[in-house]
């Protein structure tokens, strides 16, 4: 009669009784002989005729393959594919490869050990060993020694196995029914699992959202808003003068803003305005004058700007005879270097803008002191 039992367990009181029973149980040839004991018993592997586990050999082979792979990769990269001399060492210096070789060896070996043990030798996935469901299991984990005759095929005879175990000295026998091995990956199981995961995500999401909203201990992503910064024109205790905005460091030369080559204003008298008097140049000069100079010097340059008396100084009257006689170079020098209460405009004006505004000042002077010949209509 075909049996549906997993195994028959024979229970022994002492390890010696178990060891003595093993040869008899194996001789009976009724099924696979396996022993379950609360602790390892010397010589039991040999008595059971267990083969040495192949895992050690697998790990060794894969470890060596890992080491050779790492060696090959590194050598190929640094000596064949892209040979570069590093630190003056010869191409393909193997000493530098050792750390990576070590790591890849460990990687291959541990993966072989872990996966090989779980899936190849322990035959996972498999939840719970059938012996764990036996009555004898409490004894096995304490002070009983169990010899099992396990079914190897359909012809397993549990009655004969029980009799053989009793004959071998077992004080008690237990027939272990075959475990339920119906597939667990049913569609209902998958649906339940996915539904559970979805529900858990939903609950967690809503909970985190509401908690952070109601108890905003740490507002998310405000770091850039809250960083310390200084707004334009605001005071700052960082600099000695208390201003947040600072002038360029002395000697700073902005790209395209060459300093004048001349030292003194008198020496600059010989500079010649390099720009032609064209409508383009006058347009630039007018724009610079209205945005940069007019506020102090007035729209026609006569020194009556729109500043209040709070500006302590009196801007020069550029219409006066003195400045009409001024050479271009000295006006240019004043723009670049500033003069007393007039700040230097060098940082703000390009070379072209400086000379263009000189032309424009000249035009203003001529417009305010027009001579008869200036009124002549020029035929074009
Ligand atoms: C903040 C006000 C202010 C601005 C802006 C200003 N100036 Fe002046 N400027 C002055 C004052 C004040 C003086 C008189 C300086 C002195 O002689 O004490 C002066 C003097 C001058 C002089 C005579 C320099 C000399 O050798 O005596 C010239 C030329 C001049 N400015 C041109 C310009 C031009 C061109 C601009 C525009 C690029 C300009 N200024 C912008 C206030 C200003």
Describe this structure in words.
Helix 11 packs across helix 12. The protein has a four-stranded antiparallel sheet, with helices on one face. It has two domains: 5-177, no CATH class; 267-375, Cytochrome c-like domain (Cytochrome Bc1 Complex, Chain D, domain 2). The model has no long low-confidence stretch (mean pLDDT 87). It is of the alpha+beta class and 380 residues long. The protein contains twelve helices and four strands. The chain binds heme C.
Outline = elongated
Structural class: alpha+beta
Topology as H/E string?
EHEHHHHEHEHHHHHH
The count of β-strands is: 4
Major sheet, described briefly?
4 strands, antiparallel
Q: How many DSSP H or I helices?
A: 12
* Helix share, percent: 40-55%
Mean pLDDT over all positions: 87
Keywords, please?
single chain, 380 residues, alpha+beta, Cytochrome Bc1 Complex, Chain D, domain 2, 2 domains, four-stranded antiparallel beta sheet, binds heme C
Task: Give a concise summary.
The chain is of the alpha+beta class and 380 residues long. The chain has two domains: 5-177, no CATH class; 267-375, Cytochrome c-like domain (Cytochrome Bc1 Complex, Chain D, domain 2), CATH 1.10.760. The chain has twelve helices and four strands, in the order βαβααααβαβαααααα.
